[in-house]
């Protein structure tokens, strides 16, 4: 029986166990994926545990995505460039860190038919998740503008990964093919970091927050006629790529989406 899991703090609300276990079952693979709550000070011991117990691979979430880097033996070039690891693979003699978050973004956009080469894309936020978003948009050939409450953070991210950084107050002047919301504003609240009027200047809007699934940002974008993409698509596609790396098998993406959606909707009803 192969063992996989997610490490984070907290991790109790993670949708990853439901997603990965549904995929293992759907393909008839023997294995189990658990949720491991790892306090920041226990991270080195948890990484040693992956080696000692022969855990096949783990997903890594907040707050360990950057702090885990020094404990791994190898980083792939993408994780190094993004500066964060969301996946650890146990290759037997070594632990390798990689990052599938950016592919989650890219595949969510591709399946919606979004073409960005030479086009403008706007990113709201410059935190950890924004790094994978900006990386994906640049790889897709977009001209990226990053707007953040703390403008220096937007400028730094733009310097490191490409694009231009602006203060969030200047969002009123933005336009483009795509706008992506990556801040925590709207997470379990009915708020949006941008004024409603701006959506008429974009064709596609994506929110990476998925609690609730239809955020205020997406509702306003949809009302203005934008094509909208919810944050669960990114979560599922990054998880599907992890599953492929863990098992060597193509992931049943829609099975994973439905399993995550069931837990999410169950949680929302339970509140
Ligand atoms: P983070 O590193 O803490 O960054 C938070 C970002 O939100 C920063 O840009 C911050 O601006 C901004 N922000 C926070 N409060 C704000 C406010 N009141 N007004 C304006 N901006 C505000 O967090 P993160 O790890 O990037 O995560 C952000 C969100 O993405 C979370 O809700 C997380 O659940 C979601 N996420 C989703 C996926 C997925 O697969 N769908 C993956 C990863 C994360 P400052 O720089 O000014 O502080």
TrEMBL record:
<keyword id="KW-0521">NADP</keyword>
<dbReference type="Pfam" id="PF01488">
    <property type="entry name" value="Shikimate_DH"/>
</dbReference>
<feature type="domain" description="SDH C-terminal">
    <location>
        <begin position="231"/>
        <end position="261"/>
    </location>
</feature>
<feature type="binding site">
    <location>
        <position position="208"/>
    </location>
    <ligand>
        <name>NADP(+)</name>
    </ligand>
</feature>
<feature type="binding site">
    <location>
        <position position="61"/>
    </location>
    <ligand>
        <name>shikimate</name>
    </ligand>
</feature>
<feature type="binding site">
    <location>
        <begin position="125"/>
        <end position="129"/>
    </location>
    <ligand>
        <name>NADP(+)</name>
    </ligand>
</feature>
<keyword id="KW-0057">Aromatic amino acid biosynthesis</keyword>
<dbReference type="InterPro" id="IPR006151">
    <property type="entry name" value="Shikm_DH/Glu-tRNA_Rdtase"/>
</dbReference>
<keyword id="KW-0560">Oxidoreductase</keyword>
<dbReference type="InterPro" id="IPR011342">
    <property type="entry name" value="Shikimate_DH"/>
</dbReference>
<dbReference type="InterPro" id="IPR022893">
    <property type="entry name" value="Shikimate_DH_fam"/>
</dbReference>
<keyword id="KW-0028">Amino-acid biosynthesis</keyword>
<feature type="binding site">
    <location>
        <begin position="14"/>
        <end position="16"/>
    </location>
    <ligand>
        <name>shikimate</name>
    </ligand>
</feature>
<dbReference type="Pfam" id="PF18317">
    <property type="entry name" value="SDH_C"/>
</dbReference>
<comment type="function">
    <text>Involved in the biosynthesis of the chorismate, which leads to the biosynthesis of aromatic amino acids. Catalyzes the reversible NADPH linked reduction of 3-dehydroshikimate (DHSA) to yield shikimate (SA).</text>
</comment>
<feature type="active site" description="Proton acceptor">
    <location>
        <position position="65"/>
    </location>
</feature>
<dbReference type="GO" id="GO:0009073">
    <property type="term" value="P:aromatic amino acid family biosynthetic process"/>
</dbReference>
<feature type="binding site">
    <location>
        <position position="210"/>
    </location>
    <ligand>
        <name>shikimate</name>
    </ligand>
</feature>
<protein>
    <recommendedName>
        <fullName>Shikimate dehydrogenase (NADP(+))</fullName>
        <ecNumber>1.1.1.25</ecNumber>
    </recommendedName>
</protein>
<dbReference type="GO" id="GO:0009423">
    <property type="term" value="P:chorismate biosynthetic process"/>
</dbReference>
<feature type="domain" description="Quinate/shikimate 5-dehydrogenase/glutamyl-tRNA reductase">
    <location>
        <begin position="115"/>
        <end position="174"/>
    </location>
</feature>
<dbReference type="GO" id="GO:0008652">
    <property type="term" value="P:amino acid biosynthetic process"/>
</dbReference>
<dbReference type="GO" id="GO:0050661">
    <property type="term" value="F:NADP binding"/>
</dbReference>
<feature type="binding site">
    <location>
        <position position="101"/>
    </location>
    <ligand>
        <name>shikimate</name>
    </ligand>
</feature>
<comment type="subunit">
    <text>Homodimer.</text>
</comment>
<dbReference type="InterPro" id="IPR041121">
    <property type="entry name" value="SDH_C"/>
</dbReference>
<dbReference type="GO" id="GO:0019632">
    <property type="term" value="P:shikimate metabolic process"/>
</dbReference>
<dbReference type="GO" id="GO:0004764">
    <property type="term" value="F:shikimate 3-dehydrogenase (NADP+) activity"/>
</dbReference>
<feature type="domain" description="Shikimate dehydrogenase substrate binding N-terminal">
    <location>
        <begin position="6"/>
        <end position="88"/>
    </location>
</feature>
<feature type="binding site">
    <location>
        <position position="86"/>
    </location>
    <ligand>
        <name>shikimate</name>
    </ligand>
</feature>
<feature type="binding site">
    <location>
        <position position="231"/>
    </location>
    <ligand>
        <name>NADP(+)</name>
    </ligand>
</feature>
<dbReference type="InterPro" id="IPR013708">
    <property type="entry name" value="Shikimate_DH-bd_N"/>
</dbReference>
<feature type="binding site">
    <location>
        <position position="238"/>
    </location>
    <ligand>
        <name>shikimate</name>
    </ligand>
</feature>
<dbReference type="Pfam" id="PF08501">
    <property type="entry name" value="Shikimate_dh_N"/>
</dbReference>
<feature type="binding site">
    <location>
        <begin position="148"/>
        <end position="153"/>
    </location>
    <ligand>
        <name>NADP(+)</name>
    </ligand>
</feature>
<comment type="pathway">
    <text>Metabolic intermediate biosynthesis; chorismate biosynthesis; chorismate from D-erythrose 4-phosphate and phosphoenolpyruvate: step 4/7.</text>
</comment>
<comment type="similarity">
    <text>Belongs to the shikimate dehydrogenase family.</text>
</comment>
<dbReference type="InterPro" id="IPR036291">
    <property type="entry name" value="NAD(P)-bd_dom_sf"/>
</dbReference>
<dbReference type="InterPro" id="IPR046346">
    <property type="entry name" value="Aminoacid_DH-like_N_sf"/>
</dbReference>
């Amino acid at each position: 029986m192969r063992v996989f899991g997610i490490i984070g703090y907290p991790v109790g609300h993670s949708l990853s166990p439901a997603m990965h276990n549904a995929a293992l079952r759907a393909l008839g693979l023997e294995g189990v994926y658990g949720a491991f709550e790892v306090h920041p000070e226990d991270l080195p011991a948890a990484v040693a545990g992956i080696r000692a117990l022969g855990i096949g691979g783990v997903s890594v979430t907040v707050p360990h995505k950057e702090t885990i880097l020094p404990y791994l033996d190898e980083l792939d070039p993408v994780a190094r460039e993004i500066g964060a690891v969301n996946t650890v693979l146990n290759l037997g003699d070594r632990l390798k860190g990689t990052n599938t978050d950016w592919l989650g973004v890219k595949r969510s956009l591709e399946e919606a038919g979004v073409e960005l080469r030479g086009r403008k894309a706007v990113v709201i936020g410059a935190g950890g998740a924004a790094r994978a978003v900006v990386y994906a948009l640049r790889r897709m050939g977009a001209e990226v503008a990053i707007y953040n409450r703390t403008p220096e953070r937007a400028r730094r991210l733009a310097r490191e990964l490409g694009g231009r950084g602006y203060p969030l107050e200047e969002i009123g002047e933005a336009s483009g093919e795509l706008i992506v919301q990556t801040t925590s504003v709207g997470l379990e609240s009915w708020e949006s970091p941008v004024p409603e009027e701006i959506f008429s200047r974009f064709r596609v809007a994506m929110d990476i927050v998925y609690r609730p699934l239809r955020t205020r940002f997406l509702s306003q974008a949809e009302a203005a006629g934008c094509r909208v993409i919810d944050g669960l698509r990114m979560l599922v596609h990054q998880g599907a790529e992890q599953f492929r790396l863990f098992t060597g098998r193509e992931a049943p993406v829609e099975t994973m989406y439905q399993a995550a959606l069931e837990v999410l909707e169950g949680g929302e009803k339970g509140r």
